[in-house]
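Narrative of accomplishments. A recurring question from our advisory board has been how the design workflow behaves on a single, concrete structure rather than in aggregate. To address it, we present the structure tokens for one chain from the evaluation set, followed by the sequence designed for it. No filtering or post-editing was applied between the two.
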């Protein structure tokens, strides 16, 4: 993955985390988890509502969130007195053990920090003993998402206050949020339509259906600009209105009364056009009677633009209420129109679509490899473990006769099956002696944590579920969900066996390798109890052919 793509992947991942929460506590927790994951810092803190600067050397401020330091986690919700020089100022990566002394504990002394201001809302501190190596511009990389985080905190606080009954009139704000969430669902469903599309006509019809059925809008239709003398607009697909009713209307993109409506203006100007009230806006006069009959009150027209920047069509959306469309809603729907434009052009150019698909696939795999490398850098004892598990899991899948594409997905899942260990302290992962009961429970959390990290990334394979289930066992004795038998994905059952073989046959921090023979005896002895019988049989066949890890 090149430098620019890595940065875009990081920003996209964090933006998804921020946009997916409506409450402050999970918002801060998920954001901090993402920052720790992408920077490889072991611990992080979030403080909000710093008092105004008064020249004092220290600041008394409440700790809102802490991850990676169990002693500091006990201070969540309590007021801490810390140096002003630590909490105030712009984004900064700095080595200053003395400044961090109030946050250091016996056996856990921090020497460096990355400070990320959250606008005027507060500050995030990432703590470490030694700054992880990276070529990323850490002090500048997160500026865009910090601005979004500040806005999200405000929205989430409003939501929290509303939920707690502390405010009584938030209807407008809630409705705005509901519209945005509805539009996001429409955008997501539209993207699914694009992925499956193989025919332009069906794509247009299905996209109109999604806008109405998923988005809750009244009518949606797509028209193409014609290059005839009248500069007419030809309806190509519609939903929520009969084709013959729409066909009776005259639409144009010419500079006349039939081209001054939202549809024609969007084609001429290349910008979204809004009619807030169809009954009073003079631009909509030619269609007012038809709009009244069909119940349309507000109209939004979104231009469809090709790769050369030329408008070739328009997506028009109608609602039954006046003054419906808000700016954020329009922005997201414009993104939907842009995606639709891309899908249309791609279908017209099959070669371009194929290249795009390959690029997306490569980008996903590069993302998986980057994620896997991040985990391995934190835990040298398991360096290569995920890669070897992935190799063996793929070989087992192919031995079982699974399609090559599915086997490839299993290999990719194996490559990140332990991603959740990013949230397990390095001291536990690298402990050379037996883990305590508490430490073992912490390690067990990595399966669920891995699922939470991966679940919002759109893979064509069940990567997140495989990571979640790879420690489940056939008899229900595994973790974290205690699943049994067929409730466990076959893909996860394959990764589970490969994980056991590789773990037992490799050196661990607390013991040397037990050898391949002992590993084989383990899966054979517990065949049908812990491990899937067919998977065990296939694994034995693979290993009997003198399989060797790369």
């Amino acid at each position: 993955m090149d430098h620019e793509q890595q940065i875009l992947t990081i920003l996209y991942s964090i933006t998804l985390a921020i946009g997916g929460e409506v409450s402050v506590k999970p918002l801060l927790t998920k954001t901090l988890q993402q920052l720790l994951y992408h920077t490889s810092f072991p611990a992080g803190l979030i403080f909000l509502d710093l008092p105004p600067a008064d020249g004092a050397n220290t600041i008394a401020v409440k700790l809102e969130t802490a991850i990676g330091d169990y002693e500091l986690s006990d201070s969540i919700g309590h007021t801490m007195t810390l140096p002003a020089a630590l909490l105030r100022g712009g984004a900064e990566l700095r080595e200053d053990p003395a400044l961090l002394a109030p946050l250091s504990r016996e056996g856990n002394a921090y020497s460096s920090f990355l400070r990320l201001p959250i606008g005027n809302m507060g500050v995030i501190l990432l703590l470490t003993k030694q700054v992880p190596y990276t070529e990323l511009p850490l002090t500048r990389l997160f500026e865009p998402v910090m601005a979004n985080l500040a806005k999200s905190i405000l929205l989430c606080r409003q939501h929290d206050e509303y939920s707690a009954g502390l405010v009584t009139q938030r209807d407008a704000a809630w409705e705005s949020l509901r519209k945005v969430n509805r539009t996001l669902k429409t955008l997501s469903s539209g993207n699914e339509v694009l992925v499956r599309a193989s025919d332009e006509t069906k794509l247009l019809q299905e996209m109109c259906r999604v806008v109405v059925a998923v988005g809750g809008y009244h009518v949606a239709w797509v028209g193409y600009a014609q290059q005839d003398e009248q500069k007419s607009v030809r309806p190509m697909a519609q939903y929520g209105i009969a084709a013959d009713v729409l066909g009776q209307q005259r639409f144009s993109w010419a500079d006349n009364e039939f081209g001054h409506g939202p549809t024609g203006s969007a084609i001429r100007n290349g910008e979204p056009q809004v009619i807030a009230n169809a009954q009073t806006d003079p631009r909509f006069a030619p269609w007012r009677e038809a709009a009244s009959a069909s119940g349309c009150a507000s109209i939004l027209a979104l231009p469809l633009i090709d790769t050369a920047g030329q408008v070739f069509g328009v997506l028009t959306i109608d609602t039954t209420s006046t003054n419906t469309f808000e700016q954020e809603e329009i922005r997201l729907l414009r993104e939907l129109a842009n995606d639709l434009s891309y899908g249309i052009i791609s279908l017209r150019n099959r070669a371009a679509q194929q290249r795009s698909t390959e690029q997306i696939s490569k980008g996903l795999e590069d993302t998986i490899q980057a994620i896997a490398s991040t985990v391995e850098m934190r835990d040298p004892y398991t360096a290569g473990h995920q890669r070897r598990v992935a190799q063996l899991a793929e070989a087992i899948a192919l031995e079982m006769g699974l399609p090559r594409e599915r086997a490839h997905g299993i290999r990719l899942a194996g490559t990140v099956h332990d991603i959740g260990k990013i949230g397990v302290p390095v001291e536990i992962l690298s402990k050379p002696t037996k883990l305590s009961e508490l430490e073992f429970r912490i390690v067990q959390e990595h399966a669920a944590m891995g699922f939470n990290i991966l679940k919002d990334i759109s893979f064509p394979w069940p990567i997140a579920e495989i990571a979640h289930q790879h420690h489940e066992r056939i008899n229900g004795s595994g973790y974290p969900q205690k699943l049994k038998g067929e409730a466990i994905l076959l893909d996860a059952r394959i990764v589970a066996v490969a994980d056991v073989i590789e773990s037992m046959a490799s050196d661990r921090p607390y013991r040397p390798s037990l050898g391949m023979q002992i590993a084989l005896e383990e899966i054979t002895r517990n065949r049908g109890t812990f491990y899937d019988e067919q998977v065990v049989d296939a694994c034995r066949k693979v290993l009997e052919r003198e399989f060797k890890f790369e």
